[in-house]
Amino acid sequence: MITIAEAVAQAAESKVGVRESGGRNKGRALQPFFDADWYDPNGSAPGDDGYPWCASFVCWCVQVAVAGRAITFERPRTPSAWGLEAWSLAQDRSTWTLKPPGRDIRRGDIVVFNFSHVGIAVGPVNARGFVPTVEGNTNGAGSREGNGVYRKLRSIRSIRSRIRFR
Q1: Among 33, 50, 110, 150, which residue's CB has the most CB atoms within a 10 Å radius?
Q2: 150 and 162 in contact (C-beta within 8 Å)?
Q3: 141: exposed, middle or buried (C-beta count within 10 Å: 0-12, 13-18, 19+)?
Q4: CB neighbourhood size of 35 (10 A)
Q5: How far apart are CA 156 and CA 101, in angstroms?
Q6: Nearest-angstrom CA–CA distance, 166 and 3
Q7: Phi, psi (degrees; rounded to nearest 5) at 10
Q8: So what's the pLDDT on residue 120?
Q9: Which residues pair with 155 in a beta bridge?
Q10: How far apart are the C-alpha atoms of 30 and 28, rounded to whole Å?
């Protein structure tokens, strides 16, 4: 069986190309991400949740990765990028590590950015100090308020912390 970290990375990569439809932060293709977190603004209709969904995307990736596994932690369900740091600190430390970023980022790490955004590392840091990621609710320019799931190349200087499965 593959590691949880690898399963997280594979789940993220499987959704590259998903795009919003019907307005900002909306669309039926986003519903699995919205369903993976605890937030439901006013009992919204499927695909019509309408809130920034980068953290919801990460929650979905972890949900898919741990499906059918015996796990000793509560999977993340926060719709907040920085809330993922708080979630990781509340878990059994034998399962997770939360650390300031560095050149040790690995495939499957959750990377929390300085600009209130989050994604999944899908490779190691390159020689120039950039890490390949897959992120939800971004765009080609790298906004934290975008229109889909994209592959990005982010500077480690833009990363606030990384969360790693042990």
Answers
A1: 110
A2: no
A3: exposed
A4: 14
A5: 7
A6: 9
A7: -65, -40
A8: 98
A9: 130
A10: 5
Which structure tokens are listed for 9?
């990375």
Q: 92 near 72, Cβ under 8 Å?
A: yes
The whole-number mean pLDDT for each consecutive block of 10 residues of the chain, a chain of 166 residues, reads 96 97 85 88 59 94 96 89 87 72 89 95 96 96 93 95 87
Amino acid, single-letter form, for residue 131: V
* pLDDT of res. 45: 55
Report the CATH fold assignment for 4-165. Answer: endopeptidase fold (from Nostoc punctiforme) (3.90.1720)
Residues 6 or more apart whose Cβ sits within 8 Å of residue 94? 72, 166
Domain regions of the chain by residue span: 4-165
Three-state secondary-structure class, residue 155: strand
Rounded CA separation 26/150 (Å): 16
Confidence (pTM):
0.92
- Tokens 């979905």 identify what position? 60
Q: Give the helix/strand (H/E) hosting 161.
A: strand 159-165
